[in-house]
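Sample entry (158 residues):
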Amino acid sequence: MFYKVKIALTYCLLVSMMSSFVMAQEASKDPVSYTIEAPEMVQVGDVFTINTVFNIQPSWYVYAPVALNTSKGKIPTKVTFKVPEGVKKINGLELPDKNRFFDTYSGKDVRMCQNFEVEKGAVSGKHTIKANIIYQTCNGDICYPPVREKVDVVIKVR
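Predicted structure, serialized as tokens:
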């Protein structure tokens, strides 16, 4: 009899642990998503923009790239690009306005935009611009570990 009770308790414990694991997985889904908008085709001499667009669920935010956040150990949102030969960045990343009282971004359609130029003499064909995206998602109670992703943005020069 003791053996059957032990098996039943072990089974209940495993089922309980599995359902907790599934709930933890659901709860840990990142409340921030992003897309990258870029032209598919450009010509020599063209100036074009790559937009990184963040959509942040209500009550969540990401940190703006300001010195105050960095000095407090917060991970600021950062989008950088490594360009191939024949393409150059124009100026720095254009950032959205911060929230009024905090150095954070929240809401839908939070855009970070970088302008590029296809230089004279650029070779026709596919060119890969490498984007590096870093952000940390927080709300009033918790901050998730930083997200660090690399994305290849392919444009075709004709």
